[in-house]
Protein 1
Amino acid sequence: MTGLAGAHLRGFLRDLRAAGLPVPVGRQRDFLCALTTVPPRDVRHLYWIASTTLTTSLADKEAFDPVFAHWFAGSGLPEVVETDEPGDEGVGGGGDDAPPDSVMREGTGSAASWSTVERRAEFAVTTADEQRVLVRLRRDLPAALPEIRSRRRTPARRGDRLDVRRVHRDAWRTSGEIVRLRWRRHPQRQRPVLVLIDVSGSMKQHSRDHLRFAHTVVATCDRAEVFTFGTRLTHVTPALRKRDVDAALSQLANVVRDADGGTRIGPSLGQFLGNTRHLRMARGALVLVLSDGLERGDCEPLTRAVRRLSLLAHRLVWWSPLACDPAYRPVTRGMAAVVGHVNKLAGVRDLETAWQQVNDRL
Amino acid sequence: MNEHELAERMRAERYFADEGLLTAVYLALTLGRPLLLEGEPGVGKTELAAVLARVLGRELVRLQCYEGLDAGQALYEWDYPKQLLHLRATEAQVGEVYREEFLLERPLLRALRKPAVLLVDEVDRGDSEFEAFLLEFLGDFQITVPELGTIRATEPPVVVLTSNRTRELHDALKRRCLYHWIPFPGLERERAIVRAHVPDIEEDAASSLVRAVSGARRLDLLKRPGIAESVEWARGAVALAHNGDQWPVALRRALGLLIKDEEDMALVNAHMDELIAP
């Protein structure tokens, strides 16, 4: 592919990369092969050829469509999306026909609204005392989690299914004579854990410890996912994967933008439940919600979300700092609706009380 | 077979693909690459593979993925009892029992041995271990059996992978595939599908049903009905209509075939009048 058309295609592919859509060489080759074997009839056809070979998920279309429109449909410049960082500046040389290097896609402001005030959380450093509690938590947490039988079978001393492969291997040593039977069984494995943390203003003094607890969960459990919510939902598991708890929390402060703000528990949980990929994290899992349940406004979405969550989860546990008070009764509108659907409502206000709950097998 | 013929033959099998899907399928066939299909449940991802098998006159080999699927169930397994019996019976050398006749073929191996359409269904339900051994297969269409060597495809299979997007697939897997997202069909196409599958339904009735389904998809439902559900709904309503019900009444009574969740049912019932307005 040479000449004008080639330059045009190269420009198109280069812009895709600039738009944040990584197109590996193999896929570019596919695209060019496709063009030579199936010559496109019109622009629509070309669109489908390009999207089949160059994108790998529905989300890619967001970046792909504007670039395609710019290069082939002549519909003006790619849409400029608000950027957090200056990002990709090195979009090489660019011919005369190169469009402005504009599109960066991470962190679009789509979730912002007029009622949402962005606040960055600040977290104090973990003290030596707290470190000791964290050590205890790390030690005791895995044993406290509910278990489920794994789907894979592994070799075991006693089991329910003959391990024919191993029996067979052993039999070679004894010239085909079976001397000993070997077995496989389903081992027990931890259920997944899903932690949903309220970081709104009313939880301000507890969210620091709650996030530390979440860090321990991510560090010790095989399958753990953590979300924070205040006025919006944030997936924070990747940020919590840092080994050092303070490093993880300071990174978290960059991600969680709605800390210490208002509360919209119901809509945030609803947002969680509206995403099929997230639903999978809750299915059959131990779901821990760390919130005081003080919902502003309509409680109906909260009730619906919690009911759905309790149907999905293996066990739904609600930790509220208010419940630490022995005189506490869940009578606020939010909690009164929720309490019928949770398996356990417990009082947790800091790491120590969290550890007590863990010791109590959650 | 050119693209036009492909579309004709698929239509003859009562599968109505739009231009995007046709292009994707045609590219998968001409470039010999696996095709990864994503889309809401019930838009015809699995059905496409079955239709392709009929169109191409190949066998459909289906591998349903689930957590814990291992090589023994997806690729091959040695037939140990047969090997042992053979050794005992003939006092043969050990090497003799590692031959193809002692190999039990599982779906992926089977798809290599004869011209096939391989459907790897709901690949997102499998775990990453499974994706890992799928890679060698999809890259070169070959399987390595350590005792025997590498088995290559006589004729590369046509591979269709489907995913419901419950988790992100590995990049390495996605890189080897062509990708197409199947959206819900437009009114026109869905009516054609419903009429093809439920020949008894009248033109007007089909239109109102399809409009109601697309209206229902715009509601905030937990599970949006797919094409499979609207075909079932049409079938049910036609059966009731034959039984003497008026059409709108029949639609209402058969609603359980379209909506499969109690909360959704309440929501749809509340909007039923506007949905099936003439």
Protein 2
Amino acid sequence: MLPPAMLRFLARRLLQTVPVLFVIITATFFMVRFVPGGPFTAEKEIPPEILRNLTAHYGLDQPLWRQYLGYLGKIAHGDLGPSFKYANRSVNEIIGDKLPVSLELGALSLLVALLAGLPLGVLAAVRRNTWLDYLASSVGMVGICVPTFVLGPLLVLYFAIHLGWVNASGWYGWSDRILPCLTLGLVYAAYVMRLTRGGLLEVLNQDYIRTARAKGASEYRIVLRHALRGGLLPVVSFLGPAVAGILTGSFVIETIFQIPGLGREFVTSAFNRDYTLVLGTVILYAALVIACNLIVDIVQVLLNPRLKFE
Amino acid sequence: MPRPGLAWALSGLCGLYALGAGCRRPDAAAPPEQSLRISQRNEPATLDPQRATLPDEFFIIRALSEGLLVPAPDGGEPRPAVASGWDVSADGRTYVFTLRPDAQWSNGDPVVAADFVFSIHRVLSPALGAPKAALFFPLRNAEAFYAGREKDFSAVGAQALGDHLLELTLEEPNADFPALVASGPWIPVHPATTRKYGHVDHRGNDWTRPGRFIGNGPFTLAAWRPNQEIVVVRNPAYRDAARIKLRGIRFLAFDNGDSEERAFRAGQLDVTLAVPFSKLATYRAAQPPVLRTTPLYETRYLALNTRRIPLNNESVRRALGLALNRTALVEKVLQGGQQAAFTFIPPGLGGYQPQWHVEEDAAEARRLLREAGYPDGRGFPPLELTTWVNTPVLEAIQQMWRQELGIEVAIVQREARTHLAALFAGDYDLALVTAIPDFNGASDLFTALKSGSPGNYAHWSSVEFDQLVTGAGRAGSAALRNTAYQRAEKLLLTELPLIPLYFNTQNFLVQPRVRHWQTDRLWTRFYSDLSVD
């Protein structure tokens, strides 16, 4: 059973979420409608009678406040509305198709980031100032500086075109996951590595580590059991914004590797003035970021005995 | 300790390399027989021929269904498809199409004249909001029915005289009519299917999903994974099924030209839609058979807002047009095989040959500018040239005007719909615009320039031009129509509310194993003869 302090904390944060989401929805709703151009603005102009019919069908001819209230009512029932751009497809359906793809891409990339970054960071801290440390730090610096839209095509050029081991793009089989997740993950792995190294180094200089060493504990036990808990704190705080970054940065990866995920829709729906899809994706991302920050806060309290749920 | 660690690391890397080398790339190693993979650069908003607007949507629709006629690849008279031929009455107002007896829908139902009448009724129903309904307005009372003035559809000039005879009556004789009938929006829909999945003219009608879509074309819709791929497979019920050699086509979604080119190089894609500009020279030098260049009936021009000073002055507009060197633009800047445009209408569109051309004379341009009150560009107000397409052509034009006329024009790039909204509202000075006709006829482009037409971005008005264009629309013969158009174009190119720059081309890549790839200058694709080695 969860401790009552955590439950109170959770309840308070969830209550705070409601006004935050409300503000986000309202701001987005009005902003997207004040942008010049509409869902039906096209190079080949649409005759005015047709435009009238279209706006009437989607309720765009009603006064703005009525559209707004109608939309809020629909959201309350979980209906995000029809897409303006893709006839016959509802926003629920589009998000339902694409969210799992983006989540898979994000989760695997995060896994790559942690699996690559954590051990390297630990190694670099433990073998400080040896060739291993310098190598890991250099790789880290390169990873932070090289943008995904450079790394991705380079990996494709080498592994897909030159060597022919994997597809250049697409999201069909398991092998299609490799390059995109590597590209997105390695950049974050670099950050994780540097943060782990820094956090661990700081902890390894603490008194209680010296005590453990004096008591005769092995190096492994010291690092894994005692030091890591504190050393991971910077990484955990970084993960909150990192998850948000992975979710939004997936737009670039999805474009390079042609992955049918939500990151692309997030951006193209604004260009298409697909009002309902814009709102749907914004709400979703806002909820995800809020949830991730909540989890990160909880994990931080669990890891750091000096923090409490307040 | 370092040494063992290094050894482990190295052997680990070697192991990974060996593992990878043993893997075969799943998609490209042995391309599946008689299956084609074509790049689809824009996700179709709909596959309903009566609600589609983009050529990208018609790429797929034309694989699934065909109309009475199809365009001819060389741009000549349209060829029979579902109709085996047609007769025109002496006054040019009545067309009778004879349908082939062996034309069938993919579920075995025969294609009958009533299906076409149904489709015309549907497209003209105001509730459907068909964006290309104007292509049907030459039919008698069609526009009135669409606007709601005529409530009875039987008054519209579309009638089935039997199962295989379709009579279409026009308001006025129209030499472009066969070209209209061959256009994409005239492709029919299967009546029972549209009825089955909702109200026939309801926008939410969901009949176009795989498993529901019934068409009468060479392929049927097998799968539609949005933003990933659309799969069509051979339709054995097609009237000419024996000719189709492909077992299926996969339209693979690509949003980005570089990803598309990488997939082509990796062997995952057979036909692309474009070539990245940076790679044009390489492909042209290294692999000529792979790079194809198709001229298009697409005019890129500068619209000049005739409501703003100094562009309301005809001398100023003509000076701007005379000071350009279009050949240099096309050869040195674009380098993609485009053609310099000295007329607004692409020559050959619908059989039209222009007679009057714009000139290029920098000295005359300077003289006109001086005459307008801006000698050597002094006192010329700063203007903005807006675009949503990022093209180096604009910088070249800016430089040409700076050099020849001494005037400064700033280039502003706007997001697509913001740019278009500004165009419609007249909130711009100069703008780069693209004109693409909807069918193989020049009337589309001329009508868009009539006074008050939304496509008349320059907000230009000429009574004489309007009269010439309306008269041309009524001309019974192609010769009379073309003469009227030539006079209208001469007027257009004299008053110069828009400056034609160049006619666009499509550069794209085709793998050597693909045979008989055919498109025409209006983005129509012809799938029937395609095969792969």
